Amino acid sequence: MSASLPTPEKLTSIAKSMGIQFAQGDAESFLSQMSPFFAAADRTLQAVDPLPEVKYPRTPGYRPGPNEDPLNAWYRKTSIQGAPEGKLKGFTAALKDNVLVAGVPMMNGSSFMDGYVPELDATVVTRLLDAGAEITGKLHCEYFCLSGSSHTNATGACHNPWKRGHSAGGSSSGSGAAVAAGEVDLAIGGDQGGSIRIPASFCGIVGMKPTHGLVPYTGIMSMEVTIDHAGPMTRTVRENALMLEVIAGADGYDVRQNPGYVPPEYSRHLGDGVKGLRIAVVKEGFGLPESDPLVDAKARKAADILASLGAIVEEVSLPLHKETLDFFMPMAAEGMVRQAFDGNGIASGANGLYSTALTDRFRNWKDRANEFPDTVKVFMLLGRAMADMHGGKIWAKSLNLRRNLRERYMAFMANHDILLMPTTPMTAPELPAPDAPREIVLHKAWEMLANTAPYNATGMPSLTLPCGLAEGLPVGLMLTGRMFDEVALYRAAYAFEQNQDWKTL
């Protein structure tokens, strides 16, 4: 590929698209001035990308068939052996399929990306391997990660291991299903509106959306840089804390991160207990139009258990919890269109590390946009309408409102350590039928976001863990804390998990 100088006709077309009208001879005149810069761009294209070393040998792996993968949780299976020693030695780990693994194909849930092979490892991949984990494959996610259910992947639905035909949650659907089914010990999920916590809740495992920027997003396909989160999904709280220890901390690339923050060893604090922790049971997280009363009841009983263990538990009214939903979807849609689609799959930012092969693969998405599912189309159309009709004002104003919202949350959290509510208002619902109308397909994709999405907007850490069953399906309890106070969440979650009373809920 070279940075060929455009023809006068092409430059005239480009100018017209930017509102510039050329007079006779202008195209040739501008091209003569631009020629040296195209030559510089050509030299840039021919240069070798200074990418980090791919440290551990691997093969591309293979796509498992239905006999090996009855839940449709896996995109690829492989075996990448990590370091001979480390905190995660003896653990198997798998990755949501929006995470780049050098030499292993990925599809990000889409037919469009299917078969793309990255040239670099995401930071979280290197950190898992450096800690001794064995990476055993890539796990299905929703088409471009734009569903909270598990019915939009181009290969078909991912099924809940507790009850086939029910949602495994999304968009980290395969991560939730495979961990819950015991097919892998640890999984990386991604979360822009609940996509770690929703599948963890529906599948009955532990999922942590860390503070925004705590875990580097380098080498993971971005949806919207201000709400991108990556985090651990595990069967136990201890495994979750240990995994976060390994993947957290600045990597020198990701602009989402605070380079001066040094994460604690979370697993060392698990036994500190909950005595004195101030837990607010948020009234606005219960009794929603879509809420199952059984789910609400389980979460309230979980709060009672935490109180019996020494936490200071009180019910509070927190109208802030609902304010975010007024601007979250338009903001996320506009940001995604400008950053992911206009930016060809790469979020902009200084001092980043980027996959240019990903840019090449993604840049022709318009040629195949008709095959995108309605979840993607409606988000793209909403985002483009916001940007074209309001010139970026919706996104910018939403960030201003969000900053004010976060400040008010921090003021509230001065008197509380943890917010408590159900993770999802319901247990795993049935998957929509293949021929379901658009209204049902879209409703099923987003009906569960009310409690999770606000904390993508604020960036606060938010953890889900199982707190019983309702009619045979797991119920998730969500604990949300102050920025960078994952320790408090792990203390409460571990104390709750170790108390056997919750298993009778």
Structure overview:
The chain is built from 15 helices and 13 strands. It folds into 2 domains: 8-46, no CATH class; 74-504, Amidase signature (AS) domain (Amidase signature (AS) enzymes, Alpha-Beta Complex), CATH 3.90.1300. An 11-stranded mixed beta sheet has the order 1-3-2-6-8-7-12-13-11-9-10, with helices on both faces. A two-stranded antiparallel ribbon has the order 4-5. With 505 residues, it is α/β, with parallel strands linked by helices. Strand 12 (462-470) and strand 13 (473-481) form a beta hairpin. The protein has helices at 8-17, 26-46, 123-130, 173-180, 197-203, 237-247, 293-308, 320-323, 328-341, 356-362, 374-390, 393-413, 438-446, 454-458, 486-498; strands at 74-80, 92-96, 134-139, 159-160, 163-167, 186-190, 206-209, 230-234, 278-282, 312-316, 418-422, 462-470, 473-481. The protein starts with 7 loop residues before the first helix and ends in a 7-residue tail after the last helix. The model has no long low-confidence stretch (mean pLDDT 95).
Short summary:
The chain has 15 helices and 13 strands. With 505 residues, the protein is an alpha/beta fold.
Kindly report the CATH topology of the largest domain. Answer: Amidase signature (AS) enzymes
The neighbouring-strand order within the major sheet is 1-3-2-6-8-7-12-13-11-9-10
Instruction: Give the tally of structural domains.
Output: 2
* Shape assignment: globular
CATH architecture of the largest domain, please? Alpha-Beta Complex
> CATH-wise, what's the superfamily of the largest domain?
Amidase signature (AS) domain
Report strand %: 5-15%
Low-confidence segments:
none
Give the CATH level 1 class of the largest domain: Alpha Beta
Chain-averaged pLDDT: 95
Instruction: Bin the helical content.
Output: 25-40%
Rg estimate, integer Å:
23 Å
By secondary-structure content and strand pairing, the structural class works out as: alpha/beta
Distance between the termini: 61 Å
Number of strands: 13
Order of helices and strands: HHEEHEEEHEHEEHEHEHHHHHEHHEEH
**Largest sheet descriptor:** 11 strands, mixed
In DSSP terms (H or I, runs of 4 or more residues), the helix count works out at 15
